[in-house]
Amino acid sequence: MRTDTLRTAVATTLIGIGQWLRRRELPWAGMLGALFGLAAAMTPSLLPRPTLYLGAIAGLGAVVGYGWGVLIAWILRKVGVREPRPGVRRQAWQLLTLFGPVLAIMVVGVGADWQDDVRVLVGEERHRSSGILVGTVALVVFALVLTLCRAFRRAARRVARVLGRWVPAPVASLAGVVVVAAVVYWLAAGVLFRGVISVSDSVYAGTNAETEPGVHQPQSALRSGSPQSAVSWESLGRYGRTFVAGGPSAPEIREVTGEPALEPIRVYAGLDSADTASARAELVVSELERTGAFDRSVLVVAGATGTGWTEPQQLAALEFLWGGDTAVATVQYSFLPSWLSFLVDAERAADAGRELFDAVHARWSELPEDDRPRLISYGLSLGSYAAQSAFGSAGDLTTRTDGALYVGTPNFTGLWRTVVDGRDPGSPEYQPVIDDGETIRFAAAPGDLDAPDADWESPRVVYLQHASDPVVWWSWDLLTRQPDWLAEPRGPDVSGRVHWFPVITFLQVTVDQFFGVSVPDGHGHNYASQIVTAWADATRVEGWTDEEMAELQTLIDETLTLPTVPGQGVG
Questions:
Q1: CA-CA distances (angstroms) from residue 55 to 189, 222, 380, 441, 510?
Q2: 128 near 50, Cβ under 8 Å?
Q3: What whole-number percentage of the chain has pLDDT above 90?
C-alpha cells in the first residue's frame, strides 16, 4: 500500500511539474535542451563536488542547454524549416512532460553516483551525494536564472518597441538586445564587481594588518622584520610576518640531518614596505646583501600567492636539504585572495615577479661565476605565474638561472603555455616531455622526474602538476574549445567519464578550483608529498640517498601542518 501511494505521489508530482512548465510557455526545444544540459552538467569533472555545488552546476547546465535549444530552434525557423503541426507539438509536449522529469531524476541519481568514482580516484572515501538535495538545488537555480534571463528578454523587447517608432524593426530588435546587454554588463562588471572589490579591499586589508597566532618578530639578523632589518615588522603584512618568522632553525636542521647547519635566510618586502614594485625589489636586494645571502649555496627568488603567502612545507624542504645554507627572497604584490588577485591584480603579480628577479639577477651577475650561489626561480600557484613572468622564453629561463621549480602553474601563464605547446609528439599535455627531458621535466609523482632516461642537463627546470589540478587546467578556452588534456589519454586520477561540453565544462572546472586543496595530497592542488625530490632535482643537491629523502619527506608531512591556502582558486 505504501509503495503504491509513493508511486502515485511521484507520478502526480512529475505530471504537475510538466504541466507547470508548459503553463509557463517555455519552448519545447528549450526544455529538451535543458534536459541535455542537466545531463552534461551531472557528468564528473576533475574533483568531487560538494552536494550544493553539484546541484548549482546542474541548474546552470540546464540553463545553458535551454539556451542552446532555443537558439537551434530559432535558427531552424530562420532557414525555413516549418514548425510541426499543432497535433505533433501537443504529442511532443506530452512525451516530454511524461518522460522528461523521470529522465531528469535518473540523470541526477547517476551523476551523484559518478561523484563517488571521482572520490576514489583522488583518494577519498565514498559517500554518496543526496540526489534529492542535488535535484532541488538544480531546480531552484534553473528557475531563478531562467526567470532572470527571461526578464532581460522582456526588457530588450520593450526597448525595441520604443526604438521601433523611428527605426526599422530588425534594427530596433538588435538595438534592444545591445542596450539591455550593456546595462547588464555595467551593473555586473561595474557596480556589482566594484562593490565586491571595495568590500574585499576593506576586509582583506584588515586581515593583512593582523598577525597569525603564535607568530612573533624574529630576533635573528638573517630575517627581514628583525630589529636589525631595514624592513619593519609592521610593513610585512600577515603572511610576510609568518614567512620570516617560520621555517626550521639551524639546531632543528642539525637534529634531522646529523650534520652542521646554518640558520636559513628569509627576506621579504610587504606592500607597505615600499611604494612600488621596483622599490620593493630594490629593498629585497639590499636585505639580501645585509644578510649575506649572496654567500649562501642556494638563492631562491620566489613568487608569492595573492595574499603574499608562501607554502611552509615546500620552503622547509629546501632548507633541510641544503642544511640551512640557503636564502629565500620574495615580495607581496596584493593582499587579496588569489582568485580576486587574478581578476584585478594579475598584471601587478607579473610586474612584481619581473622586478624582483631582474633586481636580484642584476646584483648576482656582478659576482664572480665561481663564487656566487645557485640562482633558483620558484613559485606555487599564482606565485608560479608571478615568478615565470620574469622570462620571455624557456631559453631565457635556462640562461639566467641555475634551475627552477614551479608548482601548480596556472594555465594562463605564458611561459608554461609555450613550453607545454612545444612538447614532444606523443607526450600528453598533463605530463609533457620537452626535448626528451634534456632540461625541462614535468612530474605528478616523485618517480616521474626519473623519466625519460636521457641525461638531465643543468640547469634543471621542474614543473609539478597533477592531471586533476583545476588551477592548472582552468582556461577561458574551455568555454568554446575542447582542451588537449581531454582529447588525449587521461591522467591516472581523471575519470574516463569526464567529457567536454561548451560552457558547461568551463563552469565545472571553475567550481573545482575552490576545492583544489580539499582533496588528499598527491591530487588536485596539493603537492607536498613530491616536494623533497623536486627540490633535490631542481637544485642538484648532493649527499642524500633516496631513503634519506623519503625519511625527510615523511618528517615534513608529519610535523609541518599544511594550513588552508589563503584565497585559493584560479591560481
A1: 26, 51, 31, 39, 15
A2: no
A3: 61
